Amino acid sequence: MVAKNQFYHISLTLLFCMGFWGFQVTCRTLQDVSMYERHEEWMSRYGIVYKDPQEREKRFRIFKQNVKYIEASNNAANKPYQLGTNQFADLTNEEFVARRNRFKGHMCSSIIRSTTFKYENVTAVPTTVDWRQKGAVTPVKNQGQCDVSMYERHEEWMSRYGIVYKDPQEREKRFRIFKQNVKYIEASNNAANKPYQLGTNQFADLTNEEFVARRNRFKGHMCSSIIRSTTFKYENVTAVPTTVDWRQKGAVTPVKNQGQCGCCWAFSAVAATEGIHALTTGKLISLSEQELVDCDTKGVDQGCEGGFMDDAFKFIIKNHGLNTEANYPYKGVDGKCNAKAEAIDAATITGYEDVPVNNENALQKAVANQPVSVAIDASGSDFQFYKSGVFTGSCGTELDHGVTAVGYGISNDGGKYWLVKNSWGTEWGEEGYIRMQRGVAAQEGLCGIAMMASYPTA
Ligand SMILES: *[C@@H]1O[C@H](CO)[C@@H](O)[C@H](O)[C@H]1NC(C)=O
Ligand SMILES: *[C@@H]1O[C@H](CO)[C@@H](O)[C@H](O)[C@H]1NC(C)=O
Predict the structure, then answer these.
(1) Tens of pLDDT along 370-424?
(2) Mean pLDDT, range 71-86, rounded to an integer
(3) Which of 121, 359, 396, 404 is the most exposed place for a label (fewest CB within 10 A)?
(4) Residues enclosing ligand 2, CB less than 6 A?
(5) Residues 261, 264, 304, 447: which is the catalytic one?
């Protein structure tokens, strides 16, 4: 029985090998076969394994071309040097240059070179010198792909985001920050049990301090004295669906980008207003954040310097509505209120209410009925580089960012989440959205999401 099994196993193996070999032969000329063998030998000499057959095929073609080049050069008369199939034999010259060499000669034209040369008056020099024989040279080392590939990643990232630094010093500084961030991101992504992934998004060359300073301006830390409304129209709601996604009900406009202006509060309030307007009228209209930035300046809201969603709602009520995004477009800087555009109202609200504080169940009742403005602590590095998955922290509860909860649900692996629309463009997170853990032990919710939620009524 054992012998029979073994035989069966061996014959299967043979069949497989023959089949494979037969395939190779029919696909290649005999000449190619010996070249294919040379490539295989070379691969095993350098311990190279390609990620898939396509890559192997591609590398084989480059290897073959290089072998031809090397042999032609070695057969040429009068060349005092020989070439060989070393570890670079499966790279094109462009790839070789890109991967290996990064002496920054091309950036050096302005560098002042030293002018003293202590050997300038030396007259007698020996015919032959070999410092290895004098014990002054260590064995040859291998730089591998070292920082070079990181430099390339930074370059790729710069071109993806269209970034040009003002001078080589700034570039060098940003490169160092980028490198640190990549290390942080990779360590986080390699850590076990993290249900979310980080990525090198548009913030990848900013330190966390710079990120916080530039982006978020929800004035949560100044809010302790603000009087919150006490009515909550959804307090008696008992049946809430397991999953809600207001995008699928046509109540959410495409993700916007606040740029470097700290007016997240305006984006949050506008998204909630767009939501209730769509739900009550059936018309989804993109509304103007810039109108809030420019015109809502008589109260506590201060354009790019920060503001509150509730005060934005107050302004919208008093102003009898907001103009459209199209008619009062976003500029990303504080501007003078365009009174003519301000006077046109494409959508309005009649009031607003606050969700009972520190109560994720109450928040769920509200979000089950409409998109809701929420304040969060978005200052952590993991929030900065969030790419995908259910975000589980780490973050605090120093509310500094206004966003909009446009749904909730349960992920495939059972993680309960809030579906949150951000205003950092579609490059960040899941096409501009983040799924934040829901139902955490802390009553404030993850990143304080249940601390200061509110919604407009219409
Ligand atoms: C080389 O010789 C010149 C002329 O004597 C002298 O001025 C100079 O300092 C010497 N340089 C060094 C590095 O000794
Ligand atoms: C909820 O139910 C209570 C008790 O019936 C009632 O007094 C209250 O007005 C209801 N709240 C809302 C918002 O309908």
Answers:
(1) 999 999 999 899 999 999 999 998 888 888 899 999 999 999 989 999 999 999 9
(2) 84
(3) 121
(4) 233, 235-236
(5) 264
Q: At what angle do helices 30-45 and 2-27 cross, to 10 degrees?
A: 120
How far is the centre of ligand 2, averaged over its atoms, from the C-alpha of 300 (Å)? 33
The DSSP result for 44-74, as a single string, is HHTT---SSHHHHHHHHHHHHHHHHHHHHHH
Tens digit of pLDDT for each residue in 275-315? 999 999 999 999 999 999 999 998 888 888 888 899 999 99
Average pLDDT over residues 56-65: 92
Task: Mark whether 422 is an active-site residue.
Answer: yes
> Atom 6 in ligand 1: which residue has the minimum CA distance?
121
Burial of 135 (0-12, 13-18, 19+ CB in 10 A): exposed
Q: Report the sign of the C-alpha dihedral through residues 18, 24, 25, 26, in that order.
A: positive
Antiparallel, parallel or unpaired: β 454-457 and 244-245: unpaired
Looking at the CA of residue 119, tell me the nearest atom of ligand 1: 13
3-state percent breakdown (helix, strand, coil) of the chain, nearest 5: 40, 10, 45
Residue whose CA is closest, atom 6 of ligand 2?
A: 236
Per-chain mean pLDDT for the chain: 86
Residue closest to 442 by CA, chosen among 380, 388, 384, 376: 376
Half-sphere exposure of 331 (CA within 13 A, CB side): 15
The residue contributing the CA closest to ligand 1 atom 10 is 121
11 pLDDT tier (thresholds 50, 70, 90):
very low
Within 8 A by CB and 6+ apart from 338, the residues are 291, 294, 295, 328
- The rounded percent of the chain whose pLDDT value lies above 70 is 85
The ligand placed nearest to the CA atom of residue 236 is 2
Nearest in space to 221 (alpha carbons), one of 438, 444, 381, 375: 375
Active site (annotated) includes residue 320 = no
Minimal-distance CA residue to ligand 1 atom 1:
121
Most ligand 1 atoms within 8 A of CB, residue of 115, 117, 118, 120 to mutate: 120
